[in-house]
Amino acid sequence: MRHLLSTADLSHTQALSILDTAEEMAAVSTREVKKLPTLRGRTVVNLFFEDSTRTRISFEAAAKRLSADVMNFSAKGSSVSKGESLKDTVQTLEAIGADAIVMRHWASGAAAQLAASDWTDCAVINAGDGTHEHPTQALLDALTLRRGFSAAQGQDPRGTDLTGMRVLIVGDILHSRVARSNIWLLRTLGADVGLVAPATLLPVGVEKWPVSVFYSLDEALGSGPDAGPDAIMMLRVQAERMGGAYFPTAAEYTRRWGLTDERLARLQAHRGALGQTPMILHPGPMNRGVEISAAAADSPMNQVLDQVSHGVSVRMAVLHLLLSGSERNTA
Q1: Fold exhibited by the domain 135-303
Q2: Which of 9, 54, 231, 306 has its CA 20 to 30 A from that of 284?
Q3: Per CATH, the architecture of 7-133+309-326 is what?
Q4: pLDDT per position as a tens digit, 102-131
Q5: Annotated binding site
Q6: d(Cα 198, Cα 171) in Å, to the nearest integer?
Q7: 93/147 Cα distance (integer angstroms)
């Protein structure tokens, strides 16, 4: 694995390798000194052309815990605002000594273009490209799912996948790079994936994807205590990417597709295919009162803070696997 660009590129073995390595990295967070010397002397650049809180800080924390040097680059206030090209920006950073470039870009496919070019020899990690993919978010979601259900069953999560798990992804699928990365990764790991959204927020051709599609959240939740999902992932409505009206009003969206207090009560009564209370996930930031109620956001079923914590472990694992050994030079 030379780069991490898309979860669709990951084999079952590679995905498990990252998750199992993340489990080892998570143990570092419990130590008094939260540092490993793995990447001492290496330099990681966070190259962000879009605003970010969780992802950028998470990658910075991950690199520093592996003893790497970190440079944070924001397009705002840089020469990009003066018209500098991506090629010239990247080559400047490599000349400074970058070994890995973690890139978030507004254009879908930007990370893949960089990785395929002759502009740099750095490892490239896609931290979100337009509406295309966000692979490390999907990996941390998978780690959260695996750890939550393994802990409830008293099992060691290492070496296991998500076979038999039912996961619903609800909301703005059309504009969500998180949804796309999760679909490919969760399916690779053996989970059954359902998408729930208004027809206007589903991509063209979604019926060809390896998922079930629902237009009603109530239908997707099922009617019996064992009929519902094992996990439900609520997505933010990405108004900044919308050029038109995709649903009548925010209140109507909440009524039909939001995780309201009433639907939360239904989830609490469910036990899912794996016999556990369903988990609630959200990539953040949450729009309380729109896609998720305050009660659902604050419920112990909500794993959002665990997701953030697991994000550091996953990104440590990715940086370690890309930069520290033989995997750096393999396809």
Answers
A1: Rossmann fold (3.40.50)
A2: 9
A3: 3-Layer(aba) Sandwich (3.40)
A4: 999 999 999 999 999 999 999 999 999 999
A5: 54-55, 82, 104, 134, 137, 177, 236, 284-285
A6: 8
A7: 37
Q: What is the pTM of this model?
A: 0.92
Q: Is the pLDDT of residue 78 over 70?
A: no
- Bridge partner list, 302: 280
Give the orientation angle of helix 12-26 with respect to helix 304-323, to 10 degrees: 110
The C-alpha atoms of residue 163 and residue 143 are separated, in whole angstroms, by 14
Binding residues for carbamoyl phosphate: 54-55, 104, 134, 137, 284-285
Residue 81 DSSP symbol: G
Residues contributing to the annotated binding site for L-aspartate:
82, 177, 236
The answer to whether the CB of 189 falls within 8 A of the CB of 12 is: yes
Instruction: Count the residues in the chain.
Output: 331
Nearest Cα residue to 218 out of 173, 263, 183, 252: 263
C-alpha distance across the termini of the chain, in Å: 5
Q: Is 271 exposed, middle or buried (0-12, 13-18, 19+ CB in 10 A)?
A: middle
Return the sign of the alpha-carbon dihedral for residues 70, 146, 51, 241.
Answer: positive
